[in-house]
Write a structure and sequence with these properties.
alpha+beta; four-stranded mixed sheet; single chain; Immunoglobulin-like; 3 domains; eight-stranded antiparallel sheet; 2 helices; 22 strands; 365 residues
Length: 365
């Protein structure tokens, strides 16, 4: 009986020890399995740190970092644009002929419409020129208006980008020849002793010469440039002529190859035109001026002449030495500071010659 009790106590205790040992082994196994991923993660983090450390070392050794964002790239481009805009450019060159001859003391102009800049310099003894401290641009214009017998030079849309730019300028010579001509009246009779100013219009700036018609009404100019020109007797390139008459002839063109003589007709003749100016009540004015204009169109050439006289105290005026044909008469009269009026009419000289009465209606608006 006592032995049975002892055995019954020992068996449960042994079973309990075996169960606890098995449970403990199970726990150890679970612990190991759960901690394996943790070890691998720690090892991965150590590898990543070492990789990052190696990248930092390479940057420190002088490698450039590539912009990683759009904003960084944009800042880089803006910085480059600012550097380009602040760049100082020098433009130099040479001015000469197509035969390689230097042209000194010519004015060279360089300007940019978009930047509103204008630069000017004069060529040196060897035809050299230079512009400094220029800004980059795309619409520069290089221009020369020669003083000599050369065509104008213009080069547009010049792009300045490099630090040093060279632009040589070759001026083209204008062909020359002998210009000859004759001045006559409407009856084809020579008109002598008239001082003429001849001005080249487009080919050459400031090219003007003066000539006086000879006993046959002729004139001649050596080394005259090819192109359009005009002839005048008063005004900017003119002086007073006979009978207070001024004349200007336009539409003329000279070709040195053909050298066709020029024929100029001036309004001169044996006729006289007298007149009187009154208002509707027969009263004279404080003052009045009368203009008499004449024009001739022939072979593309337009010749115009104008005369002017003032009325006397009796309101009378007179024109002398007129040629025949239609003339435009313009009369302007005034009275004090309150009235001024103009009358325009056509007069056929040689037919309507005699005394002309002009009545100005002061009652009109």
């Amino acid at each position: 009986m006592a032995r049975y009790r002892k055995l019954s106590i020992v068996l449960p205790l042994g079973l309990a020890v075996i169960v606890m040992a098995l449970y403990s082994h199970h726990l150890d196994d679970r612990y190991v399995k759960q901690n394996q991923p943790v070890s691998a993660l720690l090892e991965s983090e150590r590898v990543a740190e070492n990789l990052a450390s190696s990248q930092n070392i390479s940057l420190d050794e002088g490698e450039q970092e590539v912009p990683s964002t759009i904003e960084e790239q944009s800042n880089t481009e803006v910085s480059q644009d600012i550097t380009s805009a602040n760049k100082s450019i020098t433009v130099s060159g040479w001015v000469g002929t197509e035969f390689g001859e230097n042209i000194a003391f010519e004015t060279v102009v360089l300007f940019s419409p978009s930047q509103k800049t204008y630069h000017s310099t004069v060529t040196g003894p060897s035809g050299e020129f230079k512009f400094t401290d220029l800004k980059p641009g795309w619409d520069y214009v290089l221009k020369v208006s020669p003083q000599g017998i050369f065509k104008h030079y213009t080069k547009s849309q010049i792009k300045l980008r490099s630090d040093q730019e060279v632009h040589n300028i070759v001026l083209e010579s204008v062909p020359l020849g002998i210009l000859s001509g004759r001045m006559v009246d409407p009856y084809d009779r020579p008109v002598t002793g008239i001082k003429l100013y001849i001005h080249a219009e487009k080919s050459i700036d400031f090219w003007t010469t003066t000539i006086i018609t000879d006993a046959n009404g002729g004139f001649s100019v050596a080394e005259f440039p090819k192109g359009r020109f005009q002839v005048a007797t008063r005004g900017r390139y003119q002086v007073a002529a006979r009978g207070q008459q001024s004349l200007i002839a336009t539409g003329l063109n000279f070709d040195p190859v053909t050298a066709v003589p020029v024929k100029l007709t001036i309004d001169l003749g044996p006729y006289t035109l007298d007149g009187r100016i009154y208002d509707e009540s027969g009263q004279t004015f404080d003052g009045a001026d009368v203009f008499l204009n004449w024009a001739l169109h022939e072979n593309g050439v337009r010749i115009r002449s104008s005369r002017k006289v003032s009325v006397d105290a009796g309101g009378e005026f007179r024109f002398t030495g007129l040629g025949p044909g239609d003339h435009e008469l313009i009369a302007t009269a005034w009275r004090g500071n309150t009235f001024k009026h103009t009358v325009n009419q056509t007069v056929n000289v040689g037919v309507d010659s005699g005394e002309l009465t002009i009545i100005i209606n002061t009652l009109q608006d």
